[in-house]
Amino acid sequence: MSIRQRHIAQLYLHGSLNEEQYGHVIELVSGVTPHVREMPPDAVQLDLTSALRYFGLSPYDVVQMTMMRLKALYGIDSSAGLAGNRMLAAMAAEVSAPGETTWVPAERAAAWLRPRPVTALPGIGRGTAATLGRYGLHHIGQLADLSPATLQRLLGAGTARLLAERARGHDPRPVLPREAADRLTADLVLDRDCLDPAERHRSVLGLADRIGQLLRAERRVAGRVTLTVRYADRSSSTRARTLSEATDHSPALAAAALGLLSALGLQRARVRAFTLRADRLRPAADAFHQLSLDPADTRARAAEAAADRARRRFGPDAVRPAATAHSGRNSRGGRVSWPMAG
């Protein structure tokens, strides 16, 4: 089975951005892909691999589209690096002038790295560079050509192993949020355009239920939910709502998410994907819950706890909301991804 080629982009944001402006950037790029790593105050990394199918564009064109949106909507200039892993994307971004994108395709990565100074590799500081320089090792290609045993004698086993991998352009690290506690995201990509309001309702309900499961598994509550809807013409709409009280209760999350869906007034819009994000997370033990005299609320939470126990024992699909059950996990043949905490 072939391994799917990854496409990672790193964007540098030019100018002095405040916290609110950086937040706008994260909001925008999260509409391109849910797999975003924040690097405040002036950078962000994106895993575009799963977004290419939706946009129907090359990795380079998706990056250009994102940079143009940043400029058009917020007046933010940027430069970018694009490659098959995080390290190469960051190195490519370093050499990109404002407004430019340096693309390092996987088949040209080794040749691109060879003439560059060893100090361009992450993890090589002045001391390591001085040690390598005493032995005439000034370029990355020279490191890549050294035998592992020779490099270990110069730098020690651990450092040598890491730098040998980097000199050959290897970096398996995934693009994950800087802090897992910052947000939880669930997204659904459909195989064909969705015009049915009932199907949209089921899709968002399913995402809200999954976000609730993840929150309860981590013993956290969310203070805000954000819904992004992407359309067949590759445009998108985003709405956010601050909750009256932080919660991990799926019905409360679903009510907020469905309210956002209704507020968009989609009507005959041709929808291709949904992304639901929960943020402003905090430990459930630190949250308060308004007591209710309605016995239905107590029963709902008890049923939710029982469903969570069943999922832990029999798998995540053992119990689902009745409104989503008949449409299947992937809703009209779509794809659901749940980014893991890490």
CATH fold-type name of the largest domain:
Dna Ligase, domain 1
User: Gap between N and C termini, in Å?
Assistant: 26 Å
* Integer-rounded radius of gyration: 23 Å
By CATH reckoning, the class of the largest domain would read Alpha Beta
Strand content: 15-25%
- Counting helices, strands and paired strands, the structural category is alpha+beta
What would you give as the CATH superfamily of the largest domain? DNA polymerase, Y-family, little finger domain
Shape: globular
Any idea how many domains? 3
CATH architecture of the largest domain: 2-Layer Sandwich
- Residues in helices, as a percent range: 40-55%
Largest sheet properties: 6 strands, antiparallel
Number of helices: 13
Low-confidence stretches: 327-342
The H-and-E topology, N to C, reads as EHEEHHEHEHHHHHEHEEHEEHHE
Q: What is the number of strand segments?
A: 11
Mean pLDDT: 85
